[in-house]
């Protein structure tokens, strides 16, 4: 049996009640962590421009746009919600591969929730499977011994596959059609990191969601695809990865869950910056240095931090997402980080810019991705040091359920009323027992009667 067919068989045969309780609960946590992101992002200019471009061409308007009153066809709704969810880079991250797996799968499930009524448990089960398959394919492509060009945006390469799995599960695809759905999605896989710092970055996961949904519908109608779309000689793995390890797609399948190694961002920024932010916050809270008295800041980080997030002079909040210099300056100045700090005004604040210019960073290949060291030198000669073994939000330092709830409230606070925000949180936490997963949509869109 090929690895792709083994994944398809597992997805089709899996049962929600057979997933270990910690896996079921972690799936709920993934949803609570993510659902506020598209609601907050629904007011961004990128969403307005996406709607302006696509709305005139929408088919049947049966799917909701989170945080808004508009309705679109399921394909366009999945895409627009995907754009909104990606804007602040505040979602989840499978740390070993640096993919963001919940978004593509959740977007297609929400797009289908009204057309194909499903229970809350069915929604969560499909979400869990979409996340799990994405992470496993990503491991095959990007984790040693595999070597993948860092220019690929891995969420774009695997997100459509996870979305196809989630949608295919809801559509009731059999094993062969599930394999075809994966194969069609793999044929559409794409995503370049050159988009970072621009609106186009938000389209990568969004296109993956739309492609995955289309792949599932095509497979349902009998659109055939190859038996080995990922592991074949000309398959996705061979095209984008040197030495891809396809055994990672199925090793421990059904027993060892990559979903349990998915992490939730405590800061709206690139994940590889989080250790540096954690260090700056903890140092600032412990020593309370006056930001104006700081004469120098020295950072040591994993090489990937500077490779992906080494922008010295961001001009917008989107560019600031990928600037370790910016976020360390914000952390030292504000001593807290929330969604309100993701703004053009913060990026262009003169005090933040002045402190940012006094920060120097170097990479150490011996550091883990979630490890950092920071030294702050004050004008009177005082030197403060701090070392972070694991960033906040890492698997070793996960947010509590209460902290995830607070993050959701912070994200939706400017769009939903406090009562609606509380209802949405309760709907998510109790989704496994809900007869209709559409309750999430009723609590997260505008214009509800």
Task: Pick out its properties.
single chain, 449 residues, alpha+beta, 2-methylcitrate dehydratase PrpD, 60s Ribosomal Protein L30, Chain: A, 2 domains, four-stranded mixed β-sheet, 19 helices, 10 strands
CATH topology of the largest domain: 2-methylcitrate dehydratase PrpD
Mean pLDDT: 96
The tally of beta strands, per DSSP, is: 10
In total, the number of domains comes to 2
Unreliable segments of 5+ consecutive residues: none
For the record, what is the CATH homologous superfamily label of the largest domain?
A: 2-methylcitrate dehydratase PrpD
| Class inferred from helices and paired strands | alpha+beta
- Helix proportion range: 40-55%
Structure overview:
The chain has 449 residues and is of the alpha+beta class. It contains 19 helices and ten strands. It has a four-stranded mixed β-sheet. Strand 9 and strand 10 form a beta hairpin. Helix 4 packs antiparallel against helix 5, helix 5 runs antiparallel to helix 6 and helix 6 packs antiparallel against helix 7. It is globular, with a radius of gyration of 21 Å. The model has no long low-confidence stretch (mean pLDDT 96).
